[in-house]
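Changelog-adjacent note: as of this version, every example in the card shows the full chain rather than a window. The one below runs 118 residues end to end.
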Amino acid sequence: MFTTHLVCALLSLIVGAWQLMQAKGTPQHKTIGRFWLLCMAVTSLSSFWLHGVGYRWGWIHVLSVWTLFCLVCALYFARTKNIRRHRKFVVGAYCGLVGAGVAAVLMPGRVLNVWLFG
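Full-length structure tokens:
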């Protein structure tokens, strides 16, 4: 499950950055947006199968629930043409992804921290 989580998180990071820099409202934006949303949802959902030593769930799982809520809101607001709110939820979810990634790398004992820094 960790591999799925990591691959989808990295895809979300790359595709999300690309999406934020491209023209909005185009068919390509909508297609890439659906792919990004799917990757973000898989990243969030897969986190519930990842546990730390001595605990089942932690604060990071609260962020996963929040991210899922943001994704539902972003999709809803896109479909109802409330682009201002859609943008806020998407940018917020993307910033949360970046923050979670930084935390995963910098927090001692986390897998990515151990891989990168020993």
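Structural remarks: Residues 5 and 13 are 12 Å apart (CA to CA).
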